[in-house]
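S2.1 Query sequence (Sec-independent protein translocase protein TatA)
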Amino acid sequence: MSKLGTPEILILALLVVVFFGSKKLPEFIKSIGLAVKEFKKSVSE
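Output structure tokens follow.
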């Protein structure tokens, strides 16, 4: 599996904006951040 390059990241970002809409995007990013934080917390314990 290859690493994601700039074009792939831009395409994914565009798809996320289209799928979720620009108003829901900050809420979506916040929920991802909280999920990553909880995952790191559970792994460290």
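The first helix runs from residue 6 to 20. The two ends are 30 Å apart (CA to CA).
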